[in-house]
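User: Structure please.
Assistant: Input sequence and predicted structure:
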Amino acid sequence: MNLLVTGGAGFIGSNFIRQRLLEKDSTLRKLVNLDALTYAGNPANLADLAGDPRYVFAHGSIGDPELVARLLAEREIDAVVNFAAESHVDRSIDSPEPFVQTNVVGTLRLLNCARLHWAKLPDPRKGAFRFLHVSTDEVYGTLGADDPAFTEETAFAPNSPYAASKAASDHLVRAYQHTYKFPTLTTNCSNNYGPYHFPEKLIPLVILNALEGKPLPVYGDGMQVRDWLYVEDHAAAIWLVLQRGRVGETYNVGGLNEQPNIAIVKTICALLDRKAPRPDGKSYATQITHVTDRPGHDRRYAIDCTKLQRELGWAPRESFATGIEKTADWYLTHREWAADITAKKYQRERLGVG
């Protein structure tokens, strides 16, 4: 298989690529990573894999049809995994348009290029070709405390500009499968966490702020519930769906771990109290600060991943206890990675970009 991964320099994409290349999968001949390297795309995430002869990096956007078409043809691509997306809810509230451009227009252009490439393939390769679109549980909206978890049949009800843009991209993928019989697959995942997570997201933000003696911001009462999925378990699920999923189907991927945000923050504080105690002997929990809730903040997400478990035999390897400890250990030993991102972020802000 020659595989095109879009957005592979980001958090989930880079973990997926690392997993595929380090597992030395004999079915993988070439892996092309197309990434625009916006604020969340970081070449350092994959620097240790640069010497792998199967790995090719291409700098560019999924919204560039000439570039995408050339990569598909020249690299003889057999499958596409689309991670490329603007994904931070707060940023989408501040400025929705980039989310529409990348998540909707970009996905449309990528789909169209991939469909035209697929249509020209000889029959054996055409029958094996797949386009896997990686999406989010946020397209389903919000749940009450006692509501059943989201299934693949749950109606879409996105509540943020980010979620709306991802819902639109999911609909486009479905439409291309139905209209053109293009062989698509979609995964909708719960909140990911783990190594290489961009520092503006909750878990890395809490870890890094704690170590730097900064406030640990918690929106509102902190009782917003999320299902937390370790990123390597998500990457394994995506690969399984790409290989064995039924064409045209959606598969929900969840971590089987619902917790309120405040509990996540307190768990991290307790871990750091043990692994990297504050010099004054106080708990990092004293740094917790409740801040004004963001507009339209969804109260609860929960994923029912029974279909993925039943059809493909997937199950998460990491419990939250093991996954969060691995994550804390990674950030404790990769402080320079986070510091470099922070420095570049501030530099972009001074220059008025990003």
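Residues 97-119 form the longest helix (23 residues).
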